[in-house]
User: Which sequence fits this backbone?
């Protein structure tokens, strides 16, 4: 997907670079975020720290970071099953930190055992 495709997407209102669309600075540990919640007046915006992070290096294709944020807009969700499904539909890998974890069943110990 190219930048032109992104900006033409029905769920995308815009791309803010360098700061959040609301004018606030991005937290030091945040490279990007999406405004995906229905009650957010900035719904549809993707905010990204650096213009260098928009496209894959040496390509016209969007970076995995921007595709990650687009998946939030399309799914209107956080890092849940809907978001993971949307990432797969967009042809994107699910980063290890956001893969669904299987919980181990811990059986209670019985008396005498």
Assistant:
């Amino acid at each position: 997907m190219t930048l032109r495709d992104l900006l033409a997407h029905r769920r995308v209102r815009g791309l803010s670079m360098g700061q959040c669309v609301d004018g606030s600075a991005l937290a030091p540990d945040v490279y990007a975020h999406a405004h995906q919640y229905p009650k957010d007046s900035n719904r549809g915006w993707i905010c990204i720290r650096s213009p260098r992070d928009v496209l894959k290096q040496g390509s016209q294709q969007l970076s995995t970071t921007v595709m990650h944020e687009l998946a939030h807009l399309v799914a209107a969700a956080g890092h849940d099953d809907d978001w993971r499904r949307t990432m797969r539909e967009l042809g994107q890998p699910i980063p290890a930190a956001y893969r669904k974890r299987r919980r181990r069943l811990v059986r209670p110990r019985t008396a005498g055992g």
In short: The first strand starts at residue 14 and ends at 17. The helical segments are 3-8, 64-75, 81-89. Residues 64-75 form the longest helix (12 residues).
